[in-house]
Design goal:
Order of helices and strands: HHEEEEHHEEEEHEEEEHH
Distance between the termini: 72 Å
Radius of gyration: 20 Å
Number of helices: 7
Structural class: alpha+beta
Bound molecules: adenosine-5'-triphosphate, magnesium ion
Shape: globular
């Protein structure tokens, strides 16, 4: 009996290790453990190498046994990595003005949860964002934007000929839905936080989004629109004046 138990244990261990197609030294053991739990829950058979390392997180594609892909956003938890992240979370964010950050991990988990909540609110309101699947400590699972584990390009990465007036209008209409139906302002919108798949814009990276009631909302909304307008204008697209867009966003219709 002992022998059989041992074998089952070893086989299971091998299976868990098989999950990870690459070894990533930035993932700590707790995160590994959590990834195994998530794999069991979502039928994930493999995690692949990071497709991006940003300021606050890394994104990994994961494949289910049904052949479906998810995007796994793992927020950095190590002190060195999260130092930059904490700066991003707290600097200029008045909600953190009086908060003493005593526990880094807790803050990081809160941030992952916040992104999940914002994604859910936007998704339910009809904004084109990756569909949120689940959040677990510092790990957010969402719909994969792209095909067969190959991510779609960012707006920033498109060739000039792919940047059209139609795409601009699509993005402005997404901002409309975000503000008028989800009642949120992105707060970090630019050509770096929009993916383009099948000629449609997908808004990503929504952890810092804030309610339209927030004191800073109008200022951040103006900055978001300025960023988008500047980008499309630099590509020769006829843009709508910022004031006109803001007016239509804050007016009753
Ligand atoms: N749902 C998704 N499907 C496919 N790829 C994605 C998805 N979400 C994000 N990515 C890819 O991962 C990158 C980083 O994502 P995101 O902007 O959310 O993280 P970040 O850590 O805030 O990065 P940064 O600091 O660069 O803004 C994106 O630029 C995009 O290339
Ligand atoms: Mg980003």
């Amino acid at each position: 009996m002992v022998g059989i138990d041992k074998k089952t244990k070893e086989e299971k261990k091998l299976k868990d290790e098989d999950l990870f197609k690459v070894v990533d030294s930035t993932i700590d053991s707790r995160t590994y453990f959590n990834l195994i739990q998530i794999a069991r829950r979502l039928n994930i058979e493999a995690y692949f190498g990071a497709i991006s390392s940003g300021k606050e997180a890394r994104i990994y594609p994961a494949k289910t046994i049904e052949g479906k892909y998810y995007a796994i956003k793992i927020y950095y938890t190590s002190t060195a990595q999260s130092k930059r992240a904490i700066k991003k979370y707290t600097e200029g964010d008045i909600r953190f003005k009086d908060v003493k950050i005593s526990n880094t991990k807790q803050l990081i988990n809160t941030w992952a949860r916040k992104e999940y909540k914002n994604l859910s609110k936007m998704y339910q309101a009809g904004v084109r964002v990756p569909r949120p699947i689940m959040v677990y400590e510092n790990i957010l699972v969402m719909e994969f934007i792209g095909e067969n584990g190959l991510r779609a390009p960012l707006l920033k990465e498109l060739g000039d000929e792919e940047i059209t007036e139609g795409l601009y209008e699509d993005l402005i209409s997404q901002i409309h839905i975000m503000v008028k139906r989800a009642l949120l302002v992105h707060g970090d919108l630019s050509e770096y936080n929009v993916m383009v798949f099948n000629e449609k814009c997908y808004i990503i990276d929504v952890s810092q989004a804030i309610s339209i009631d927030h004191d800073e909302a109008l200022k951040l909304l103006e900055r978001d629109i300025e960023n988008i307008n500047n980008f499309f204008e630099s590509k020769g697209i006829n843009i709508k004046p910022k004031e006109e867009i803001i007016l239509s966003l804050i007016s009753g219709e």
